[in-house]
Amino acid sequence: MSKRLFIYCEGQTEEMFVERLLRNHLAHHGVKVERPELCATTLDPAGQRGGFVNWDAIEFDLKQTFAGDSDPNLRFTTLLDVYRMPPKLLTLAGFTGAITLPTDVEIVEAAIERVFNEPRFKAYLQRHELEALLLADLDALERVFHRHKSGLQTLRADISGFAHPEDINHGPTTHPAARLATAVAGYEDLKASNAYFVLAEAGLEAVRAKCPRFDAWLKHWEIWGMKP
Asked: Which residues of 113-143 are buried (b: 16+ CB within 10 A; e: fewer)?
């Protein structure tokens, strides 16, 4: 039977990334990626979706999703940002303030999995947000946004001291998406498609080489898909 993967996404940027890049990639590893779902922001099933802001709504939504399909060949995962996650979730994981280290993120992921006790579910949080992946290949950024070389050269200098793009955060004006918006005028106006174009230009292998947590998550599903 076909192995299926359902990815619960934070917003439209993650949704486009899943539909246009991850789906095709994982298909080559025996995994059929189902149509992704955006985060619930309210307990109303017909309410607005998109945004990692309401943990109660997300918890209810995921429980309904798990209960709706008992296929043993189906797996569930998330693609949510660490940056500005719901405070209730941090408290649930035992933190009293913001988290920064990779081990901190693993603790939160484990706490999420304990809430559901669903063996088919593997939580994943992108440290610190999906836009970190775009900073893995600054040459690709410059090829896509060739009219913004000055801003991108400044960005290149500003992040040169980070070992990995996934280390970049440091606050409301210096997290990855904010840095991109500063370097590229109008970036946020077409945020989802801009991210897609850059990641498609860079290629997943270049991104994975610089983003170890993302690489490990994707590798997990590749290995699962190829198992007999």
From this structure: eebbeeebbbbbbbbbbbbbbbbbbbebbbe
Whether the per-residue pLDDT at 1 is higher than 80: the answer is no
Separation between Cα atoms, residue 148 and residue 145, nearest integer Å: 6
Residues 6 or more apart in contact with residue 195 via CB below 8 angstroms: 13, 16, 17, 130, 131, 134
How far apart CA 146 and CA 189 sit, in angstroms, is 17
CB-based contacts of 4, cutoff 8 Å, min separation 6: 31, 32, 33, 34, 71, 73, 74, 75
33, 92, 132, 193 from 114: Cα distances, Å: 24, 10, 27, 34
Percentage of the chain modeled with pLDDT above 90: 94
What's the average model confidence in pLDDT over 178-189?
96
CB 85 within 8 A of CB 66: no
Among 6, 27, 13, residue whose Cα is nearest residue 189: 13
Write out pLDDT tens, residues 45-104: 889 999 999 999 999 999 999 999 999 999 999 999 999 999 999 999 999 988 989 999
- Would you call the peptide bond into 128 cis, given omega within 30 degrees of 0 as the criterion? yes
Do residues 38 and 65 touch, judged by C-beta distance below 8 A? Answer: no
β-pair partners for 38: 9
